[in-house]
Zyg-11-like protein isoform X1
Amino acid sequence: MPPQTRGRRRAEVSADSAAAALLPQPSLPDEIWEQVMSHFTDNRDYFGFGLVCKRFRDLVRHGAALESTAFLWNGQPGYSSVQRVELFVEWLATRVGRPCSDLLLQLVPPPVYLGSYAYASIRQSLWCVLGQLAQQLTVLDSRGSNDLIPKVGNWTAGFSRLESLSLTSQDSGLTVTANLAGLTRLTHLGLLATIAQPEFHQLAEEDAQMASYRGARLALPEGNFLPTGLRSLRLGSPLLQTLPLQLSTLTGLTSLYLESRRQVPVEMLCDRLLPLAPGLRRLHVMSGMAPPAFLPHLAAFTSLDALDVSRNQWSVDDVPGADGMQQIVDLLQQGLAPLTNLTQPGLADMALPALPPAVTTMSGLIYLECSMNLPSLTLPAGQYLGSIVWLAVDWDTLASSAAVMSSLHKLEELCVAVLPAGTEAGATVAAVLRSLAKLPRLSALYCSHESYSSNRGVMAAVKRLQRAKPALQLKSLQECPF
């Protein structure tokens, strides 16, 4: 194609929409640009994108590689799908001949007029080349395709360089049919099926609750399908109730994350997890999957640095009697007491009336999450407070623990979740804010906007706190890393 034709074609493409002026201009040598674009035969033919991917796969097979970077397929606001494809083509071509260690691909719904078949073609073409590109691959699918991983052929054969793989499907479920054991270099694996906006508090009956989860089912193969060299594994789904039998053999695991809204039998948890106890440093068993009878078995995980059992709440059938939640505190105490190396306990949203005494004896504590429990929960005095760097609690807890606030002299980040109850809520928040000015290292405060925006006294306390600590960052709960 003559140079003048090339320029005219680019001008035509750039004039396709009002957002074109925002697009970066091609910075590639014309030869490379034409080499890629010649296989993208028509910029309005979405099936042509598959040709680009195939061409790029051929380039990679001949020794080309990508540099460490991330790419979001969903583009930017105002960009048409055509422009997103063009930007992706440009991005691919600029990476030819450079090493790659990390690739993030986000799959989102295309415009309706594209049709599902066209989108499936693009996704399959992309997948054909991904194995050639990255050591770390993260895929986020919010389209609802229920086909995140291709079901045809042994796709794992092309991923010989892959060391980290994370697959997250939102509102569509995740079905794994491939034998992942072929990914021999894989050390991190995440398989998560989530729902976008769960309204758990509005669901009164089990049937209605399960119906809301049906789009977030995690289906795993039977037998030994996991790589044996895994060091980190994440499995999560609201409906996850059966753990892979192979899990107990992955003794090289140092980090294990499990999450489900369904309770897993204690016998299964013990069978799958206790063989891993000597090597595990991080264990997350969250959101309702751990029955109370499992809590004393935590005592076996003496090598743990981090343990999170947040959002495990039980019914009266699990903990009968008026002192049911105190029984939970006692069971937690049995499990936590031997964990002398623990530095990061997560005990949020468990309806706990008090902290287990074992927490107050953890001299190396740097992280404590105990928000969204009962208003009676306090921070007892103790040396454990002096080492805490990150803390997540409620306003009521801080208000009732005012006498020990000055002991948090290493605290850097504070997340305050639940608003105080009653007519004196504003006074409670204001009192806590005044005490925060005494914390010498506090640099970030996460709380809801409603905590201070509707009360004049609270707003005044916020302003005084900001004057006393000009470097303090006031952030929303959505930004909280806890």
